[in-house]
Amino acid sequence: MNQDNFNINRLFNFIQRQVSLNLPPMLIAAGGIFGLLLVVSLFVAYFDPRDIREINSFYLTVFFIGGFIFTSRIFSELNSPQKSYFYLTLPVSTLEKVIGSWVLSSPVYVVVFSVGIFIIYLITGLVAGGNHASIPDMFDKHYFQSMGVYMVTQTVFFLGAAYFRNYNFLKTLLALFVLQVIIGSYSGLLGWMLFGSKLQSEDFSGGFQYFVEYTIPQIAHVLFWYLLAPFLLVVSYFSLKERQV
């Protein structure tokens, strides 16, 4: 099969196959996570209902960590010597595998988690009585912005899942740490070489200060929200394609 082909029916069949094959472990994981969130929420609602308004941060912490781990294992079948042969011989192109795996680990994961905490929130509200935040308070602008941040940062772990052959989650974290150290060291050294000890804002010209305070944040905003995720997905495609050769 030409690995660049794309067929919507094959894509749906691949997604259906992945869900059916991994349904038992996914149900166990979902049961454990939502069970933990429900127990914690009920304890908070019973002993101090006023704190239930602050539990969103706990939900989002679990959401991010769970999503990154789930994404890191999205190509685990390819890393298994017993299962990789069947995965490689699937009548599905590399593009369809990348799109199908991303759909499961990003938009589908977001929807499933949101539905889960919506149900937990309803149950918790019954225990908390009238002292709980409303559903609009729960699914506010901050919540949907966090979902967007996840869908961008998740592609980093998606690339780690496609590139590394084992310990994908830990190796991705290590790669992020090393990359952060390199960028931080390079930026610090470059700033020291250009300005030396004159790192006071009054030493900068108005044009340069405007560039640092306004232009760079705008560039970073565009890079993060519009370019980072597509770029990492394209790199993931070529990484997966290279591993299948």
Task: Spell out the blueprint of helices and strands.
Layout: H1 8-47, H2 56-72, H3 76-79, H4 84-88, H5 94-105, H6 107-128, H7 135-138, H8 141-163, H9 168-195, H10 206-243
Textual characterization of the structure:
The chain is an all-alpha fold and 245 residues long. It has one domain (8-243). It contains 10 helices and no strands. α1 packs parallel to α6 (107-128), α2 runs parallel beside α8 and α5 runs parallel beside α6 (107-128). The longest helix is centred in the N-terminal third of the chain and has 40 residues, at 8-47. The chain is flat and about 60 Å long. The mean pLDDT is 86.
Give a nutshell description of this structure.
Helices cover 79% and strands 0% of the residues. The chain has 245 residues and is an all-alpha fold. The two termini are 12 Å apart.
